[in-house]
Amino acid sequence: xxxxxxxxxxxxxxxxxxxxxxxxxxxxxxxxxxxxxxxxxxxxxxxxxxxxxxxxxxxxxxxxxxxxxxxxxxxxxxxxxxxxxxxxxxxxxxxxxxxxxxxxxxxxxxxxxxxxxxxxxxxxxxxxxxxxxxxxxxxxxxxxxxxxxxxxxxxxxxxxxxxxxxxx
Length: 168
Hints:
By secondary structure, this protein is mainly alpha-helical. The protein has helices at residues 3-7, 15-26, 64-80, 92-104, 137-140, 147-163; strands at 86-90, 121-124, 127-132.
């Protein structure tokens, strides 16, 4: 087992987590830049990290049906976080899950349907959905997602959360 499967906390103990927590730390949203185990002292502030699929399927490639099975949990989780104003979706899979979650919470999906892209943003009810490439090794090792690109989108999400406006 690797990462969250091994440590019991999402984005902990793997390279995707190293990339994510370092960016959140640089943005002032985490108290340290790395997380290697669930009890290592990491604390996120003014943000919540979750997943559309609550278990890692074989090959870590969840199916849309698995996303659907976990959807009620994500809806309840977001509903409980009543101060959330920005959802940062890490990858197209998460973007689609966020759109479905907000629709399940009674928000109308804008037409045309917002398309995923790195840095894309869409205002949906009281939330702003922001997209980023997932910090997977496939994206970070190839340069599809660089620390500067990720920092920019995390900074934008933080700014949007602070002022509530969507700036294309």
